[in-house]
Task: structure prediction
Amino acid sequence: FQTFEGDLKWHHHDITYWVQNYSEDLPRGVIDDAFARAFALWSAVTPLTFTQVYPQDVKDLKDVDIVIQFGYKEHGDGYPFDGKDGLLAHAFPPGPGIQGDAHFDDDELWSLGKGVVVPTRFGNADGAACHFPFTFEGRSYTACTADGRSDGMLWCSTTADYDTDHKFGFCPSERLYTQNGNADGKPCEFPFTFEGRSYSACTTDGRSDGQLWCATTASYDQDRLYGFCPTRADSTVTGGNSPGKMCTFPFVFLGQEYSTCIREGRRDGRLWCSTTSNFDRDKKWGFCPDQGYSLFLVAAHEFGHALGLDHTSVPEALMYPMYRFTEEHPLHEDDVKGIQHLYGPRAEPEPRPPTTTAPEPQPTAPPTVCLTVPPTVRPSERPTTGPTGPPSAGPTGPPTAGPSEAPTASPSEAPTVPLDPADDACNVYIFDAIAEIRDHLHFFKNGRYWRLSEGRGRRAQGPFLISDTWPKLPPKLDSAFEDPLTKKVFFFSGRQVWVYTGASALGPRRLDKLGLGPQVDHVTGVLPRGEGKALLFSRQRFWRFDVKTQTVDPESVASVDQMFPGVPLNTHDIFQYRDKAYFCQDRFFWRVNSRNEVNQVDQVGYVTFDLLQCP
Amino acid sequence: APRPRQPTFVVFPGDQQTNLTDLQLAEDYLYRYGYTHVAEMNREKTSLGRALRRLQQNLALPETGELDNATLEAMRAPRCGVPDLGS
Result:
């Protein structure tokens, strides 16, 4: 190991550091975390402690020991950076002023060493970052995409294989939210007017710092409400001659049109793209995102300098001058010897991790349009609109309690509080069928059913035996539907249907009688459409159904996601309840309201928690 | 039989690194990281030899004193900007 001439070192142990600015490549939280972990490597083997400070906590920023900064080319210290790659960062040995500071070249793509880090919002992956590449419908994606969606919203898979795992989230996009500014994170409003001119995309106009912004109302001139547009790290170029810009696809290069990043024209085989539609004409370009450099590893190395270590010639050591990505613990024996030569070993007991003096940074406020996750989030696997669904209006609060009339007739001897857990509806993972019959929601499972009492303190009553109430029915049902007009109740199981009018039953009859072909192997559910009309669903298709003639119109077949965007495609039960349609998949439901002919998912929730009101 | 298309290489505006020759890259690197003190070197390779040998020693590369491929590759690798030698 080497130290700087004269063994330059800090003469106190409680070191403070300030992150003066942030790269757009990574979420701020990830940057703060990378720096904290880098400092923790050194505090683990020395008596040093590291505390992140913020301008509002210190009297004079000059008193901060280590100032961390991102910059381009000449960034004020007379040691210019060199564009993408090559020189990544540098730092100064301990001492006052610029001494001890660490600078990072923002022409690099900062990541965690394994490609861009794109945080997601909403979806069903709890904000996990995108996984690139990922496959969707057999195709590989290395950036966010709107494929599979009709609303153009950008999404990504948070695992390598969306087709298998169905884990996804929405990518940063100004249509989803904005950052900072004064509009509480509301999404952009396009078009908006600024100084009388109309803008239909984010702009840097009016700013000297080049940050892309937008208005969150139709007129910035009038309302003065704005926010910054989130960075699309997955398709923003680095280096070249237009860093920070996004690839423009398709673009023309040497007369050919390209819709992806290419290696053509380069000897070094690196991927690049044009940032305008015509490179031949405009000559504007940049490098496409690659694995990037691990901010954690580079920071750990630079902080070694900031503490007094110079470069070593041990290739495996952290203080070796060349960048090398590793997922192992980066400190080498040579590094430990060096730093302990300056500060001695860590005194027992366990070291304290770096502390921050400010409260946790607040997550950006969710947009008023809650796409998928209601404000009060239950256990993390709460699902949301799948890639086939649009963003939709947020939930309007819990379902309102129904009228408080007395429950209608039912086998009164049913215990109200089940003694045997198997009798407890809250223990049922997935119900066979759910239907509103006589204004009460019925939950069917394996020959038994529960009836939701309405009014204050809604509770599931039961279980009752299906055979006691509907003797002809089999124990296993696929779906049930009560026609609000005639009060006839249809029960479906496999390719059979029963129709109960009061206590009298017609069936079983084959689905062929309803005009359904042999390829329809079961009925997922029926939704009433008024005046004796309904929609009959089977898997991803549905038909118009005439309740009076009890037949479907074969010509009317359509696919579910056309009319009901936002619901999962593999729904296993569909029913109507209080004028809203419910699409169930696994333990969850997607509630669709049909305000002014537009079907929109307005709530996603648990069948047991949100419908059955289980504790 | 169709002949493979000859690749066309383009000089990309603002792309400093690909526009340098190997010698220019070496001179710039040796000066930037403290192995030579005078940026303008005469172009005799031998005068680079001593600096190259010191670089190779410092970076645990084979010490040939030549601008060989391993050394050029090391010079093109991403690295820290703090000079290896000098204050």
In short: The two ends of chain A are 61 Å apart (CA to CA).
